[in-house]
Write a structure and sequence with these properties.
It contains 15 helices and twelve strands. It is an alpha/beta fold. It has three domains: 78 residues, no CATH class; 187 residues, Rossmann fold (3-Layer(aba) Sandwich), CATH 3.40.50; 55 residues, Arc Repressor Mutant, subunit A. The strands form two sheets. A nine-stranded mixed sheet has the order 1-2-6-5-4-3-7-8-9, with helices on both faces. Strand 11 and strand 12 form a beta hairpin. The longest helix is centred in the middle third of the chain and has 16 residues.
Length: 366
Amino acid sequence: MADAGASEDQIARLRLIRSENIGPVTYFQLLARFGSARAALDAVPDLAARGGGRAPKLAARSVVQREMEQVAKCGARYLFLGQGLYPPLLAELENAPPALIVKGHLSLLEKPAIAMVGARNASAAACRLARMLARDVGAAGAVVVSGLARGVDTAAHDGALESGTIAVIAGGIDIFYPPENEERQRAISERGLLVAEQPPGVEPRARHFPYRNRIIAGLAHGTVVVEAAPKSGSLITARLAADHGRDVMAIPGSPLDPRAQGCNQLIREGATLVQNADDILEAIRPLHLRPLAQRRLDYGAPAEAADASEVERRAVLDLLSPTPVPVDEILRQSALAPAIVQTVLLELELGGRLERHAGGKVSLAG
């Protein structure tokens, strides 16, 4: 059986997000259009057919129930967007995870948060600095968020473990990665908070880490990069933070060290140069005092459906290619109503013919 505390709506929501071809953006569009996850599940096959593709495989109720049992067995629980204790800062993201799996002290989600990321092969000096910064930021009352990776992430968690730290992991809540951090991950689950988007048992893969990075950036009022090479995952996290309107901070380093080039580049592009915890706290103070955007999450009243004609579908399809393009550009060039364009894109994605990318871009599926 599923968790006794799970409602029928939560089971349907989890079935929807675990179904084929349904990511966060599509999930929210379906709920907004049909008013409930149950109604959206019923509508998916017809929408996919309109998009010219096969109906996606919907997650079976039994599969979701087994997942819920695994989550409960791990001592974890779900946080559903728009319900209960879901982090309000993360809820601001257009592609916020519809469901999180968490284990530990949920009260940490109520404190101002700083993300701290950096190189996996970080220098000893960078690790020491990250540990000190995390300790001092935590002592000032903020929570340190990181990704439990080797190097800077590990040092940041260690520095903030006593005051409170949140580890966002790329795999399932029960998977220890990297393996040498098993005891650290257990300690965070007992004294801090573990956060996962993937179901239990899922081993982290390369494609999971960008999704994890958006959660790290989304949970925090600001992101600090301690040491990072160009084109590293840490810079991806920093740019995601900037896209979300959060502050980006970086520790400057020697131009002779490749591991400092990413931070120096961020500073050239406008990131705040920080050298100590006081600099970090000063940078985020205006942000963590600002009122949060109130995202509308009441799906009780379905939005009016905008059915597209075959001519309109063809107009949108002709503008798509394997190269990602902003949805705004599709709107501009098609001159169609936004509701029509979004409907066509939704149908194409459900049919497996469309891929969504960061920055609100879409492309034809390869």
